[in-house]
UniProtKB/TrEMBL annotation:
The gene is Pfkp. SUPFAM superfamilies: Phosphofructokinase. This is 6-phosphofructokinase type C. CDD domains: Eukaryotic_PFK. Keywords: Acetylation, Allosteric enzyme, ATP-binding, Cytoplasm, Glycolysis, Glycoprotein, Kinase, Magnesium, Metal-binding, Nucleotide-binding, Phosphoprotein, Transferase.
């Protein structure tokens, strides 16, 4: 994060929406998270004193007018955050495609003074919105000529401003890393795949799964990566000639390696290199005829669009919704229609038509058979996924593998986090591909000291991506008291590099090992850390493996608790989350669950603030929303404990509301990893392993590896838009060692977002947003790989 010195904060208080009217509509296919976006637009709009209108049933409602366009209040969007689909309806609209239809729509908007539109939909919906904007002044003049509106209105409502948010489960829109709904659709697919794997395992079956994606293979590709599928068919990367033989050989090889099941994922738009469709039935028939395997087809269909939105989609949509309102407030007649989206971990605004043109370029490249170009145009995230999948799914024959004679050990340190196993699998397989001998250390540094270390093969890590916890076993013990024994084990097993997957203990452990280099030559080897902890408290990385799964657990639980509170009425729940001193889970959980407050260590609070929260809830009980939800991080304050806050609320709320408390505890560390954690773990560990190979080559001299510089002990972290290797020694200055948290944390900028959406007055630093960027197609070398 940039330090406070770099920029003078710019706050949005001086942006007023008074006198402005914003219309919000959802159009095209529905996607989970659309409601979260609608809620954020409505509440942010009302917060800045603008009028906000729902446009029901997409463009159809805009053309039909009447009751389809209604002004809404704060409570109109209560309890929709956790609902899938879109509560304001979406419809395909033929009439809006005609000028008459758009003329009628313009008339309906002018009647209500709406000149700002927030459109949530796919590229078709957004293109339509842009055309409407271009025609706007002409439409108004035409309405004035026919006497439907007066000349005054033409002047007053001369410009239409448009901001789009992409809601599409396919993630098929260029310029944005993730569209609203994609992560939730992956959740649905992975739930199904995990369930199918257990039955396939029992019967030694092959399953062909068809997932959505008529023109884009993102869902198929990422779910294949997240479940370790044997084969994947996507429209952007058709298989080479003779793929039938290659695939069958691969499937039978896997069976010969004692793998009891095969999973093949097919995107509904999959094609071969002659642009002929590859259907799931065709794949099934092929496997049955050639190999005689017991094969079944499962078509997921609309299951993927359904269900409750994931925590990621809720936070994404809430951030985008607030950003969209800011963009509308700042828009001038000269501003082109823009799309708000996410790049890495950064909210950005991009010109709508540039994104649409690029999205159409991909389709054109595919139609013309320029498939490599299509993959490149899809963006760096897509390309990275494809390369990682290719790297991990097919083992080359031993004869073709290079031999480096290097031994690399992998270990887990700290508390278990979902996604650790996916990281171990990726590390082992990439290591083997690079020609190293891979060793697994059981039970962290303690196991290392006791010699619990064994060679691990390609097949040993099969099926690990979907497993929660830590299969290798993990301990919080630090290496300092075992240095002698660990050095001895490294000598005995001739370990030339270390990869440590874990949380804050792993970071401390690497600091201790590098400090011990003066005494022990054995530690003068390349070492890399991959952050994995539910607390997300590791310096040098915006995200750590396991945090997304824990966040989803918290969100799911909060949804259930809110439901219970709605039933009993006038009830406030106080929920304690994990995280040590780091408030990430409490803060982001509150944002995703629509909580009223979140108490965290990073933002000191006193009795006055607790009192203000109680009063805020008392006011809330007078409205139609008669329930409250308060999250508290376990170490936010040593005296204001969960019990204390519960007792205070109970006493102060007597006669108005009653209280219940809930400590979520270790369920936050368990469960199957979410698609994000599987994917993040897989990609970050693969990248870390490639770094180890590079460092081993650089530091190999006179028959041995010797690395004693700071840059040979690194932490690989996600920073804003990029994955970066940072020497652990340099991260010391960024760390608060007493409380085990980074001194600066990016997510604290989202604190005000939660408060605004819960109806608190606050100030929100918008220095990071604002400037319109362009959709960049960088030369391949210049692009750092994102997640």
């Amino acid at each position: 994060p940039r330090s406070a010195m770099d920029h003078q904060p710019k706050f949005f208080e001086n942006l007023s929406g008074a006198g402005k009217a914003i219309g919000v509509l959802t159009s095209g296919g529905d996607a989970q998270g659309m409601n979260a976006a609608v809620r954020a637009v409505v509440r942010m709009g009302i917060y800045v004193k603008a009028k906000v209108y729902f446009v029901y049933e997409g463009y159809q409602g805009m053309v039909d007018g009447g009751d389809n366009i209604v002004e809404v209040s704060w409570e109109s969007v209560s309890s929709i955050l956790q609902v899938g689909g879109t509560v304001i309806g979406s419809a395909r609209c033929k009439s809006f495609r005609t000028r008459e239809g758009r003329l009628q729509a313009a008339y309906n908007l002018v009647q209500r003074g709406i000149t700002n539109l927030c459109v949530i939909g796919g590229d078709g919906s957004l293109t339509g919105a842009n055309l409407f904007r271009e025609e706007w002044s002409g439409l108004l003049e035409e309405l004035a000529q026919t006497g439907k509106i007066d000349a005054e209105s033409v002047k007053k409502y001369a410009y239409l401003n448009i901001v789009g948010m992409v809601g599409s489960i396919d993630n098929d829109f260029c310029g944005t890393d993730m569209t609203i709904g994609t992560d939730s659709a992956l959740h649905r697919i992975i739930e199904v795949v995990d369930a199918i794997m257990t039955t396939a395992q029992s019967h030694q079956r092959t399953f062909v799964l068809e997932v959505m994606g008529r023109h884009c293979g993102y869902l198929a590709l990422v779910s294949a990566l997240a479940c370790g599928a044997d084969w994947v068919f996507i429209p952007e990367y058709p298989p080479e000639e003779g793929w039938e033989d290659t695939m069958c050989v691969k499937l039978s090889q896997n069976r010969a390696r004692k793998k009891r099941l095969n999973i093949i994922i097919v995107a509904e738009g999959a094609i071969d290199c002659h642009n002929k469709p590859i259907t799931s039935e065709k794949v099934k028939d092929l496997v049955v005829q050639r190999l005689g395997f017991d094969t079944r087809v499962t078509i997921l269909g609309h299951v993927q669009r359904g269900g409750t939105p994931s925590a990621f989609d809720r936070i994404l949509a809430s951030r985008m919704g607030v950003e969209a309102v800011l963009a509308l407030l700042e828009a001038t007649p000269a501003t082109p229609a823009c799309v708000v989206s996410l790049s890495g971990n950064q909210a950005v605004r991009l010109p709508l038509m540039e994104c649409v043109q690029m999205t159409q370029e991909v389709q054109k490249a595919m139609d013309e058979g320029r498939f490599l170009e299509a993959v490149r145009l899809r963006g760096r995230s897509f390309e990275n996924n494809l390369n990682t999948y290719k790297l991990l799914s097919h083992k080359k024959p031993d004869a073709e593998l290079p031999k480096t004679n290097f031994n690399v050990a992998v270990l887990n340190v700290g508390a278990p986090a979902a996604g650790m196993n996916a990281a171990v699998r990726a590390a082992v397989r990439v290591g083997i591909t690079e020609g190293h001998k891979m060793f697994a250390v059981i039970d962290g540094f303690e196991g290392f000291a006791r010699g619990k270390i064994k060679e691990i093969s390609w097949g040993d890590v099969g099926g690990w991506t979907g497993q929660g916890g830590s299969i290798l076993g993990t301990k919080r013990t630090l290496p300092a008291k075992y240095l002698e024994k660990i050095a001895e084990q490294m000598r005995t097993n001739n370990i030339n590099a270390l990869m440590v997957i874990g949380g804050f203990e792993a970071y401390l452990g690497l600091l201790e090992l590098s400090a011990a280099r003066e005494k022990y030559d054995e530690f003068c080897v390349p070492m890399v850390m991959v952050p994995a902890t539910v607390s997300n408290n590791v310096p040098g990385s915006d995200f750590s493996i396991g945090a997304d799964t824990a966040l989803n657990t918290i969100t799911d639980t909060c949804d259930r608790i809110k439901q219970s509170a709605s039933g009993t009425k006038r009830r406030v729940f106080i929920i304690e989350t994990m995280g040590g001193y780091c408030g990430y889970l409490a803060n982001m959980g509150a944002l995703a669950a629509g909580a009223d407050a979140a108490y965290i260590f990073e933002e000191q609070f006193d009795i006055r603030e607790l009192q203000a929260n109680v009063e805020h809830l008392t006011e809330k009980m007078k409205t139609s929303i008669q329930r409250g939800l308060v999250l508290r991080n376990e170490n936010c304050n040593e005296n204001y404990t969960t019990d204390f806050i519960y007792q205070l609320y109970s006493e102060e709320g007597k006669g108005v509301f009653d209280c219940r408390k809930n400590v979520l505890g270790h369920m936050q560390q368990g469960g199957a990893p979410s698609p994000f954690d599987r994917n993040f773990g897989t990609k970050i560990a693969a990248k870390a392993m490639q770094w180890i190979s590079k460092k081993l080559k650089e530091t190999y001299r006179k028959g041995k590896v010797f690395a004693n510089t700071d840059d040979s002990v690194c932490l690989l972290g996600m920073r804003r838009r990029n994955l970066v290797f940072q020497p652990v020694a340099e991260l010391k200055t960024e760390t608060d060692f007493v409380h085990r948290i980074p001194k600066e944390q990016w997510w604290l900028k989202l604190r005000p977002l939660m408060k605004i959406l819960a109806k608190y007055k606050t100030s929100y630093d918008v220095s990071d947003s604002g400037q319109l960027e362009h959709v960049a197609m960088l030369p391949k070398e210049a692009v750092p790989a994102p997640i």
